[in-house]
Every structure is written in C-alpha cells, then in structure tokens.
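Quick one from the shared queue. A colleague (R.T.) flagged SsuA/THI5-like domain-containing protein as missing a structural entry in our internal table.

Convert sequence to structure tokens.
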Amino acid sequence: MLASALLTTATVGLLASSASATLKISSALSVIEYTPELWAIRQASSSSGSSSSSSPSIATITNGGVANIVTDTSVDLASNAETQALRQFATHKNLRIIYTVAEVAYRLVARSASATTVAGLKGKRIGTMPGTSAAYFVERILQDVGGLAPSDYTVVSGNICMANPCGAGSLPYMLAHGTIDAAGMWEPTMQLVLDALGTAGVPHTVFQNGSVYSEVFNLHSTSEKLADAAKRKEIVAFLKLLDKAEAQFAAPAGPSDAIVSLVASSVSGLAGNTSLVKAVWPVHTWTGDLHADKVLDVLVQEDAWVAHVDRRSAMSRETLATLIDASVLAEARQG
C-alpha cells in the first residue's frame, strides 16, 4: 500500500478530551483496514460512559503510518501494509510488527476483450501504482498464475479513486475508457473499477488469488516503546480492546450497521458511502491475530522485490524475523 504521503492530512479524536490521550497511533486514514483501531477505542469510550482518567486505553489516531513511528518519538503505534514496513525496517531496525489487523486479497480486473486469462495479459497495459503493494501484487499474480515476466507487459501508472465520479488518470476511468487493458489496486478502487465497467457495459474478468498475494496490514510499535514498562502496559491494554473490535468486524453475519456507518464516515474520501463499504467488505479478512511464521514468509519473499525497487540488498530471513514481536499479543491474551 502507498506510503502516507498521498493521504489527506487529518486527525481523528477518539474521545472528547484529546488532552487526556495516552497513546498516539499513526494510521493510513484513507484505507478501510485501519478502522478496527478506531472502533476499538470508540467502543471503550462508550462503555466507560465518560472520558475520565479511568477510561481504558485512551488514544488518538493521526494520519500517517510506519514512516511516522520511526521518525517521531511521540508516536506509539502505527499501522500500514507490509510493503511500507519493509521499506522502513531497512534503515530502522527498531520497528516491530505486533498485530495483524487485516489481510486483503487484491483483485486484478481485465477487459475481457483484452484477456480472459492471466496469461492472456502478455503484451498488455496493466494499470497500477508503481512501488506499492499493488504493484507487487500485479507482478506476483502475472508471474505465478500467468507465467509472465515483467518484460512481457507494460505497467501504466494510475491513481486510486475513493468515490464516483472517478476522474481522468484514475484506474476506474482508464480501464473503462480503454487506456489500459487491466488494473490491479487495493479497495475501494477496484470495486469502483467494476462499477465503471458495469456502467459502461464493458465485459470484464476478475482475477484474485489470496494464496499468491494478500496484503498484510499490521500494527507496529518500536523496540523502545515496548521496553518502556508503562507504555507497554498501555499498548497491551489497547490490543485487548482491538481483539474485541476485530471479533465484531469478523462476525459471521457481517458487520453491524454501526460499524459500516463508522467505516463509511471515517475513511478519507468515502463520504459516508455505506453501499461501497458493504460491497468491498468480503474482500477483507479481519485477522485479529499475529501468525508470525506466515507473516515472516510474506516478508522474506516480498523484501526481494522491495529491495530491487529501492536499490538495496535484500534482508536475510534472520534479520526480518526480528521485525516481528509476538510477545505483546501473548501478554495481552494472558489470563
């Protein structure tokens, strides 16, 4: 996923009195994935009945991500996709993954006139955002499913879209108008791609394979924050709240109207569009856990790609293993 530079500057006050906040969380406010964090603290605030000092895990969420936590010591937690964690960990070995908030199986959509199989995209124009998790997904699915090398197709840079109408330069517009043959990106851009193609009456094919690539959207801290006994206690308390929120997000019957409303009103650019939130909900898996071995496998494979893009050496599996700290969640679940 894209670094926080493209996101709208915003601050979400989780309680009426931000002055009493003890945790500062930096998250990408233009993605759905961060919203269990917001729901967790809103629910804690509601159950406490006030914003008194006894309220559990009082926090604020500011727009950003892992780039903020490694440069701003006032930030205690940060959430982002694994691509940005790898990018920052290369030069900031104090970064730590402590929880997986969500996993998202990205979608690649092609005009059927261009291709009805992944292999059929050879020689075609593929829209995505270079250097991001979406670009990594495009390369992986074209290679692993279609047997295509990067030299077999042309990557075309396109923009995300959060709400209709999607303007020129956005992936939904480009694919609907035939500027590109296929597009791969995170949500809700891909749902808006499907909507645009449907409106234009353009036959299309959807490719999705979570075993090839799913975005892993993690919550991070730093070794210094986790070594501070008082701060660690607050972080552990927050993970307990987040666990409860994740269970509600992952409810078999689907999200409650209150959750959908919160997501639609809290993600930058969605402008309260609950229908769009419901449409993309099945693409998201609310993990609410930390499967260290699985995350490490993703990091090792993806870092080879990130290292190439960033023109550095890939990190070893042993080095990448130190990016993951499962002890915090284990502590939160004791007793």
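The radius of gyration is 20 Å.
The first strand starts at residue 11 and ends at 13.
Added to the table.
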